[in-house]
Amino acid sequence: MNDLENVLERYVRLHAGSEFPFQFKTFNSYAVTNFRGGIGKTTLSFNLAYELSKKHRMLFVDMCPQKNFSELLLKDDANKKSNRNIYAALLGKIMGSAWSESQDEDDYPLSLRVMDSNHQFQDSKLCHAIPGSSELFLFPSVLYTQLNQFYSMVQSNRERAVANLLNSLNDIIENEKRDLKSEVVLIDTSPFFGGGTHLAWAAAEALIIPVRVDEQSIFALELTLKMLHDENSDFNTWRKRANIEKKPKVQAIIMTHCGWNRQSSYQIDSTSKMYIERAINICNKYADCFSTDIPANHFALLSDFHSTGKISGSLSIPITKLVPGSFHTVDGKRLQVNDSDRYHKELSYVTNLISGE
């Protein structure tokens, strides 16, 4: 049985009721990342956030300037005017006292408790989120100006200075984890590598890569893995300049919007199969980027969530908490939750794949 057949067979067995005990190495921090926007990445991140929060005390970090992850987790509280967001925290690290002394001091914490803003998380373990900021659009120029300035310093200091910048997000996260007693971190990133995503890769131990079954996403998958693998990429060039050995491993490739053949229960359609096979071949080319030796074992398949995904991503309700057959209004349209438990099984599989359980 080849890799594609193995992946598809697991999908069939999943929906037939099989359980899959995973023996993967588990990690304490994950970044959800890809180099293509508009594929529902943040809705997926939100649902993974909820599923993981059933098992772990979580810390969520929004590194995307669109702030969609913050708004799903924290709703109106994500947009309260405050210097307490990830952009301000990063500037405090990067600019030092020059930035800190220009800000009004207050007693607000950096992280917000999610259940206080989104009651859907009241049945989860205690979770916190560091809000994002639209000013992250400006962050790449700030970061790379400082990196190049420090790298031009004399040899005796520049390695440590560059490392301090690259580890700035990691330092913020570690401080919050310690104070909040968080167990696992989930970072949502932008579809562009520069700036915030670069620091998210430097902070995360493992990557979760969503890939839509379309041509642009397959191309973006190869770009993402090449950036991680290629010793001359921007990520690895700066990592080596700082003498940082750590780099994240890929823990999950999540193929989204898969179609299925309604004439045959739980069979993926031919178009989706083609893209899944191409994704597997690309991952085999960069097998050293994965946390185990067999990239195909890291694949999970998600159906097209249709109206259920739109409801979840618009109303901040996890998919597994939506009642099948119920109606919700989104952007003036009345949508119905799909009457199927397939999404629940698929999300459970993805969560276990990530957490190794």
Produce the secondary structure layout:
Layout: H1 3-15, E1 29-32, H2 41-53, E2 58-62, H3 68-74, H4 86-95, H5 97-100, E3 112-113, H6 114-117, E4 128-130, H7 139-151, H8 155-166, H9 168-180, E5 184-188, H10 196-203, E6 206-212, H11 215-229, H12 234-241, E7 249-258, E8 260-261, E9 267-268, H13 270-285, E10 299-303, H14 306-315, E11 327-330, E12 333-336, H15 342-355
Parallel strand pairs: 1-5, 1-6, 2-4, 2-5, 6-7, 7-10
Antiparallel strand pairs: 3-4, 8-9, 11-12
Helix pairs in contact: 2-3, 2-14, 2-15, 7-8, 9-10, 11-13
Poorly predicted regions: none
How would you state the average pLDDT, rounded?
A: 92
Strand content: 5-15%
The description of the largest β-sheet is: 8 strands, mixed
DSSP summary, beta strand count: 12
Radius of gyration: 20 Å
Number of distinct helices: 15
In N-to-C order, the SSE pattern is HEHEHHHEHEHHHEHEHHEEEHEHEEH
Order of strands across the widest beta sheet? 3-4-2-5-1-6-7-10
Q: Which structural class do you get from the secondary structure elements?
A: alpha/beta
Query: Remind me, CATH topology of the largest domain?
Result: Rossmann fold
Span between termini: 25 Å
Text of the CATH class of the largest domain: Alpha Beta
CATH superfamily descriptor of the largest domain: P-loop containing nucleotide triphosphate hydrolases
Gross morphology is globular
Tally of individual domains: 2
- In CATH, the architecture of the largest domain is 3-Layer(aba) Sandwich
Helical fraction equals: 40-55%
